[in-house]
Amino acid sequence: MMIFCISKPFVPQKLLLQWIFMADKIEKKIADWFSDAKKVVVAGIGNPIRRDDFVGMKIVQDLQGAVPKNVSLIECETVPEGFMQEIVEIKPSHVLLVDAAILGLKPGEMRLVFPEQVMDFPAITTHMLPLRIFCEYIAKMAKAKIALLLIEPEDTEFGEGLTPRIQVTAEKVAVMLRRLLCKTC
Length: 185
Known about the structure:
Strand content: 15-25%
Largest sheet: 5 strands, mixed
CATH superfamily: HybD-like
Low-confidence stretches: 1-11, 15-19
CATH class: Alpha Beta
Structural class: alpha/beta
Radius of gyration: 16 Å
CATH topology: Rossmann fold
Number of helices: 6
Helix content: 40-55%
Order of helices and strands: HEHEHEEHHEH
CATH architecture: 3-Layer(aba) Sandwich
């Protein structure tokens, strides 16, 4: 018997298994990083009219109403620097920035990157203020641990909506972050 789910994009079994393996490694890294978290900011970055560039924003939107009170969710769109003061005023122990970045990976693959790696990491993002400077400012002013969850996009051309592969990635990342944030915060 075959069952089709019309509302979800089709993802071949091989891709699903690759995603599960990669996600397990990322989940462990994030769990370790969150291990001493007291107050967390998750900031989604992305452009709603550049297809998969919107992935960070979509993940934060999917987390709305599903995380503990000591987790602040911020939709930064394309100007994370416009939210620097708000983040500092929250006084977080941890700040996780979620963004699309051209890393040379397969679409939907992710990397957890720390500020000290940003200078050496060959990521291409679309923001006015380099994320390295943003991270340095937040780390200094809020005395918070900073990490970037970067997701390889499939399509960043003008258009609305995530591609099916990145939509599936966004949903799975939101579930993973919800689980981790509810467990550690």
